[in-house]
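Hey L., structure's done. Input below.
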Amino acid sequence: MTISTTKKRAEAVAQANANAALEGFEPDAQDLEMQALYISGGITIDEMLDEIRAQATAAGPGDEP
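Output:
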């Protein structure tokens, strides 16, 4: 993976976190770990989103993932 790709991914993650913060959400340690894996190329965006969806489903309605 190129430095440019890594930089673009880091910027996208930072923007997503900023948008979430505006809504009152902060990433937890597990979120930050997944984000770091995505930024470094360890997982794809689809893999990260699948994991987030799985966490939300496991938490159930009204629970935090």
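The radius of gyration is 13 Å. The chain has a mean pLDDT of 91.

-- N.
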